[in-house]
Amino acid sequence: TRLYEGRWNKARKGRLQFPLPSGYVRSAQDQWELDPDVQVRERFSYVFDVFRREGVARRVVRELKEQGLDLPVRVTAKEGYGSLVWKTPTLSAIIRILRNPAYAGAYVFGRWDYSGERRSAKTGKVLPHSRAMSEWPVRIEAHHPAYLRWEEFLENQGRLRQNAYREGGPGAA
Questions:
Q1: Which helix (H) or strand (E) holds 45?
Q2: CB contact at 8 A, 7 and 16
Q3: CA–CA separation, 17 and 19 (whole Å)
Q4: Distance separating alpha carbons of residues 115 and 147, to the nearest angstrom
Q5: Please, are residues 108 and 101 in contact by the beta-carbon 8 Å criterion?
Q6: What region, left, alpha or beta, does residue 80 occupy, with left being phi > 0 and alpha being psi -120 to 50 degrees?
Q7: For residue 13, what is the DSSP state?
Q8: What is the DSSP string of 71-120?
Q9: What is the pLDDT, as a whole number, of residue 167?
Q10: Residue 78 has what pLDDT?
Q11: What is the pLDDT of residue 116?
């Protein structure tokens, strides 16, 4: 219990460590910083610019592919840790970027709930499900430098929800 509470105390202070999303690195003082590689910063800015202009994640993917632009990823595996690789953009990667509050400068912990009845048929483990933003246990806005404003992040979430495929809906992610 003490370890569990210690973890939550660190999270509430914005100091619990986990792998940073691509586009961020840790400073020597253990602070989040924008990636020092100019190409990486420009590519993430471009992703948000295209979404701002087009409003649809699929169009962001299409434009990146048409321009021949890949997405930067920092390796988090033990071998090659921290090295930069470039990967072909996918819809799921773009949606993960657009849905991640870290890019709006927010430190968030507890976006996923691991309690409930739904279990994996293979492993029997409880399947995680995302919590509504209002239910996130830890959210610290302006925690680190951002690629977009918090208000724009919220607008993007609304756009993504509006575009999500629903039976009888528009179907454009």
A1: helix 38-54
A2: yes
A3: 7
A4: 32
A5: yes
A6: left
A7: T
A8: EEEE--SSTTTT-EEEE---HHHHHHHHH-GGGGT-EEE--EE--SS-B-
A9: 46
A10: 82
A11: 74
How far is the CA of 16 from the CAs of 10, 44, 101, 165, in angstroms? 5, 24, 16, 35
| Cα 149–Cα 165–Cα 66 angle in degrees, nearest 5 | 65
Q: Sign of the CA dihedral 95, 98, 99, 102?
A: positive
Cα–Cα distance measured from residue 168 to residue 141, given in angstroms and rounded to the nearest whole number: 36
- Name the pLDDT band for 125 (thresholds 50, 70, 90): confident
Radius of gyration of the chain (CA): 17
**What distance in Å separates the CA atoms of residue 26 and residue 31, rounded to the nearest whole number?**
5
pLDDT score recorded for residue 126: 81
pLDDT of residue 170: 53
| 169: DSSP letter | S
DSSP, collapsed to helix, strand or coil, labels residue 126 as: strand
- Phi-psi region for residue 46, left (φ > 0), alpha (ψ -120 to 50) or beta? alpha
Residue range 147-153: average pLDDT?
A: 97
Contacts (Cβ under 8 Å, ≥6 apart) of 155: none
Residue 52's identity, in one-letter code, is R
